[in-house]
Structures
1.
Amino acid sequence: MSGGGIRPATSFTSAARETLKNRTLRANLGFATRTICAKRERVVDEIEDWQATRSAGAALKDHALANLEENLLLLEKQVEAAGGTVHWAATAQEAVEIVAKIARSHRISEVVKVKSITSDEIELNDSLKKQGIEAIETDLAELICQLADDSPSHILVPAIHKNREEIRQLFATKLGVEIESSEPHRLAEVARLHLREKFLTAKMAVSGANFAVASTGSIGIVESEGNGRMCLTLPDILVTIMGIEKVLPEWSDVATLMRLLPRSSTAERMNPYTSVWTGVTPGDGPQEFHLILLDNGRTNVLDDPVGRQTLRCIRCSACLNVCPVYQRVGGHAYGSVYPGPIGAILTPQLLAMADENANTLPFASSMCGACYEACPVKINIPEVLAYLRGKTHKQPVELAAFQVAYWVMSDSRRFSAALRGKRIGASVASMFGLVKGWTDSREMPEVPAESFRDWWRKRDR
Amino acid sequence: MTAKERILSRIRTAAVPREDYFRTETPVQPASIDLFCERVADYRAIVHRVSQDEVSATLNRICEGRRCLVAADFEFVIEGAIADAGFTHAELVDFETTITSCAVGIAESGTIVLDAGQGQGRRAITLIPDHHVCIIRADQVVSSLEEGLERVMVTRPLTFISGPSATSDIELVRVEGVHGPRKLEVLVVKA
Ligand code: SF4
C-alpha cells in the first residue's frame, strides 16, 4: 500500500527488529543520509549566520501559531475573494470525503497527485480507491512506491530502499515497457513518458502545500521534477489539502522559509521549482480551486505547551538524515508516514497520546541531540521526546525519572553537561535505569568519557 | 458544530501565548550580476551574457530550426517564432522551445521568477515545451529573496525557477529533466 496513515501496526521495537534484518535497506539508507548531510553542510555554511536564520524561522512559526485563528480566517477570506473555495476538515475522514465529493460531482474517476505527506497521513489513495477513484502519484519516487505497492521510507527520497535494478524490473512489469538499461536517466525517461499522457488528460489534481500566506491567500508548493507544476497548471480542477499549521501571516515571511527549507531538505540553495498561486486566474491554470484546511490531531499538539513546538516543522527531513537510529532501522520501522525523530514526536501527539504502539515511538531515540542541531526551525526534539516519554508512563517512579530527564533536556546547558558525562548525566542515566522496558533489553552502560554524539560524528568522517 | 467551528474552538482553547514579533528590514543591497550568473549556471542552466544589441541575434541563433513559441506580448522579434494564440495543451506539445521574459532574478539563490507579467504568458507555455529560454535585464536582478518577493505581483500565478527540472530519486543520482523543461537557457542583458 502506498497510502500510509499514522497508526503503527506494532510497537517500534518489534517493527525495528524486522527492518534491521534488511541489509540492502540499511546500506542504501546509510549512503543516502551521509551524502545529503555532507552536501547540506556546504550550502548551510554559505549562509552568513545560519543560527540566526534558524532562530528567525522558529520565531516566525511560533508567531504564526500564536495567531493561528486569525491567520486561518484571513486565509479563507482571501482564497474565496480570489475565486477559490475553502473547506475545513477536523478529521482524516472528513478530508477524504470532501475530495471524493468534488471528484464525484464532476464524474471524475482518476486524479493526478503531487507528492504530499499530508495526503498519505489521511490515507487518501486507499480511501479514494474504495470509492472507485484512482489517485495517480506523479512524483518519481512516489510512483515507484505506488507501483511496488510499498510505502515510502523517507520523507524526501521515499524510494531510497529500492535500487536501480529493482526499479527497472518494476517499470518493465507494471508499465509494460521494454527497458534495456537501468541507468537512472533512462528510468526517469520512462516515467516521463508514462506520466506525460496522464498530465495532459487529467481533469483533476490533488496536492498538499508547503505554505500558505494569510494576507494574500496564496499557496506554495516546493518541488524538483516539474510534476508539481504539471498538476497545478494543466487539470481543470485543483484540490489542495493543507495542515492548518502551514499558514504564514505575510508574503515576505516566505523568504525566511525558503532560505531554510531547500538547504535543509535537498541540500540545495534552491529547489528547481516553487509554484505559488492565489485562487483562480482566468486563462491560466485550473479554473476551479478547493483548499481543504486539515486538523486531524494538530490542535491536540497545539494544546500542549511543550509539544506545540512540533508544529513548527516544515517537513524538511534533516532530522532523519542525522539520526543514528533512523539510519539503522529505516523509515518503515516507525509505522507512520512520519518517520525518524520528527515522527517519533509528531505521530503519538497527533493520536493524542492514546495509541499504544505510537506511544513507543518516543523511546526510538538515543537522545544524542543531533536532530535538534539539524532542525531549521529549532524544534527541541530531545526535549519533546523526554517529555512525551513521561506522558506515556503512568507509574509514579517512572514518571519521576522522565520528569528529571525532561528537566535536563529542556535546558541546553544542562543537556550538554549531561551528555559530557558529568554527574548529572550519571544520575539521569540511572533514572532511565529505573524504567522497565528500557533495562529489559539492554545493559545500562557506564557514562562514557566521550558523548555518543561526538563519537558518532568522528566515526562518520 | 461545523468542522470549522470545532477546529477554531480547539485553537482558542489551546490559548497559545502571543509574544511580540518583529520582522527585520532587509537592507537593499546592490545585486551582483556575476553572482547571479554563477549560481544559475551552478544548476546546469546555460547562461548567455549579452548586450541589448545582441539579444535578437542570439535568440534567432538559439531558435534556428526549432518550432518556437513566445507569449503574445513578447517584446523581441524572433524569426519564425509563433505567438501564443491560446493553444490547447495537446497543441503545446508540438513546440520545442518557449522564449519568455521574467519578473525578477534573485542572485542569492540563482532563481528567476515568472509572474505572468509582460512577455511571460500563462504557465502552460513555459512548462510543456522541453526547452525554456528566459531573458532578464541586469536591472531586474536583485540580491536577496526578500527583495525578489517584493518585486513580483503575488496574486498572479508565480513560478520560481532554479535550474532545469531534476530528480535524485533513483539511488540519489541526479537526473536533469523529468517533467519540466529539460533545458533552461538564461539570457542576461547588460545594462
Ligand atoms: S523536525 Fe525539523 S528537521 Fe525534522 S523534518 Fe521537521 S523541520 Fe525538518
2.
Amino acid sequence: MTTYIIRRLIMMIPILFGISVISFAIMYAAPGKPTVMDLDPDISVEAREAQMERLGLNDPPHIQYINWMSNVVKGDFGTSFTKKQPVRDMIADRLPNTLILMIFSTILAVIIAIPFGVLSATKQYSKLDYGVTITSFLGLATPNFWLGLMLIMLFSVQLGWTPVGGVSTLGGEFNLLDRLHHLILPAIVLATADMAGLTRYTRSSMLEVINQDYIRTARAKGFREKTVIYKHGLRNALIPIITIFGLMLPTFIGGSVIVEQLFSWPGIGHLFISATFERDYPVIMAITMFGAVLTVIGNLIADILYAVLDPRIEY
Amino acid sequence: MSTLLEVKNLKTHFFSKNKVFPVVDGLDFNVKKGETLAIVGESGSGKSITSLSIMGLVPKPGGKTVAGEIIFDGTDLLSLSENEMYKVRGNDIAMIFQEPMTSLNPVLTIGEQITEVLIYHKKISKKEARQRAVDLLKIVGFARAEEILDDYPHRLSGGMRQRVMIAMAMSCDPKLLIADEPTTALDVTVQAQILELMKDLSHKFDSSIILITHDLGVVAELADRVLVMYAGQVVEESEIVQLFDNPLHPYTQGLLGSVPKINEEQERLSSIGGNVPSPDNFPKGCRFSTRCPHVMEKCIENQPDLIEVYPGRKSRCFLHEEGDS
Ligand SMILES: Nc1ncnc2c1ncn2[C@@H]1O[C@H](COP(=O)(O)OP(=O)(O)OP(=O)(O)O)[C@@H](O)[C@H]1O
Ligand code: SF4
Ligand SMILES: [Mg+2]
C-alpha cells in the first residue's frame, strides 16, 4: 500500500507538469496584457516598456515559462503584478476562507444527500422518491449564480435574515455565530449542485446493492430493515460513491469561484477572478496549479479509500 | 413424528398494472420434525417463492401472500407482525440459497457474518460468538477455522462459501432449514461433499429440512418425502421410495422418464415436451393439460383436486378418480 501511494505520488509529477504547460499556454494566448490594467493610461510608452522588461514579459513565452517553473520548483510562486505581494502569502491569506466554505458545504452536501439517496432507493417509485428525484434534477439544473442571487434577494434583501456577503461583520471581534451566519448562504449555494449529484449517485448505487443476494441473506438472518440497509447495504453502496466524491473535490474550487464572487467571500476563487481581470499571471498560474494538485490528490484519495473500503481490492 | 410446519392453501401472487400472476396457488403440505422434505419441479414452478413465503420474504413490491396459513410450531407465521418475524428468521427458520458466490456480504469478514447472527438472536458476547463460530466452521469442514474467520468471502471458493452459508444457517440451531438448490451452482464433486455435509448435519442438529432441487439424484440421496410442484401447485406428494417405484401423476412420470426405477441412475429431470405455462396464462382446467399425454376432455374444463390415492400418497389428476391409475 505504501509503495503504491509513493508510486502514485511520483506519477503526479509529470501530470502536474503537463497541466502547467497547457495552462501557461492558454493564459498566454488569452487576449490582453497585464500592464494595461496596472498602469495609468497617461503613462509614457518608455515607462510601459520598462515595466514590461522588468516583469520579463518581453521574453519569448518558453523562456517566461522556464523562468516561472524554475522558481516554482524552489517553492517561489513569484510576486503579484498588481498587488506587489508574494503570491504565496496572498494564497495563504485566503485559503482558510475557501477551506471553511468547502468543508462546510461538503458536510452539508453529504449529510443531506446520503440519507435522501438511501431513502429514495429503499422507497423506489414512492412519492418521496419522486420528490427527491425532481428536487435533485432541479438542483443540478439550477446555475449557482442564479440560485445565489435568488437566495440573497430572498434571505438577505427581503427578509434580512442573513448578511449580504463577507466572512464576518466588519470591525467585530471573532464570533462563531456571526461566522456561521455569514457562512450559511454561500455554503448552501456551493453545496446544491454536488448535493443533487451525490443524491443521484447514492440512489443508483443503493438500488443496485439492495437487489444483491447478500441483502436477501441479511434479511433471511432476521435482521431489521435498518440493519439490512445501513450495515449490509450502505457499506457496499458507499464504495463507488466515495470514489466519485474524491473526483468531486476539485469541483468545489470551480464552484467557489462563482460563489465567492457572489458573496464577496475573500477566498481563492475571489482572488482568481480579480487576478484574471487584471491579467495577474503569477496569481492565475498559482491558483490553477493549486486546483490541479487538488484534482490529482482527490483522485489518489478516491483510490486509496476504495482499497480501504473494498477488501476485494489489493495493491 | 409430530408436525413442525403445516402449510395450508398458501397463495402468493405477483401483481403488475392489470395482471395477476398466481405464482404459488393453493399449496398444502407439511413437514414433520426431523424429516427432510424435497420439493422438485421445473424452473418457474414456484419453488423459490414458496420458500420465501415461509420466510416472509416475498419480493416487494409486486409480490404478496394473499391467502393461507403457515403454521410453524403452533403459530401461524402469517399472523405475526414484522417485529415478531425478525425473531423467527435466522433463528427458528434458516435458509441457504442457490448462489454461494454472491450470497455472502463482500465487505464483511466470514467471522463478522457468522457472529452477528449469534449476537443478535442468542444475545451472547462477542467472544462467545467467536468461539461458537470456530466450532461451527469446524463442523462444516474447515480444518483451520480460526484463520477463515478473518478472511473475506472473495478468498473462498464456491464450495467453501456454501459451507460458510451452512455454518451461518445452523448457527442458531434452527428447527427448520430451507435449502433452495444448495448445490446447483457447484462442481459435481463439491456437490456430493455438500450433500454429505447436509445429511450429516440434519442428524447432528435434528433439524427438519426443506430441500428444493431440480436434481432427482439429490432427492434420492437426502429426502424422506417428496413434493412435486407444477405451475404453483402440488401435483404429487409421496414417500421417497414409492415415488421412484410408482409415480402417480403424469407429470411425475414424465419427470422420471418412461421406466422409473430408484435403482437405475436417473439423475436429471427428463425433459417433457412443451414449456411450463406462464403464471398469467395458466390453463383453465388441469394446469398440466397442455403437456399431458393422457389429457381428457374434462381436464380442459375442470381442475382436479389433490386427493389421497393411497395412505400418505397424494396426486392431482382425474385419472385416479376413475380408479385406473
Ligand atoms: N419478483 C418477481 N416478480 C414477478 N414474478 C416473479 C418474481 N419472482 C418470481 N416470479 C415468477 O414466479 C414464478 C416462480 O418463480 P420461482 O423463482 O419460485 O421458480 P422456481 O420454481 O424457484 O424456479 P427455479 O428452479 O428456476 O429456481 C416464475 O414464473 C417467475 O417468473
Ligand atoms: S388431470 Fe388430465 S391433464 Fe391433468 S394430469 Fe391428469 S390426465 Fe393429465
Ligand atoms: Mg428457484
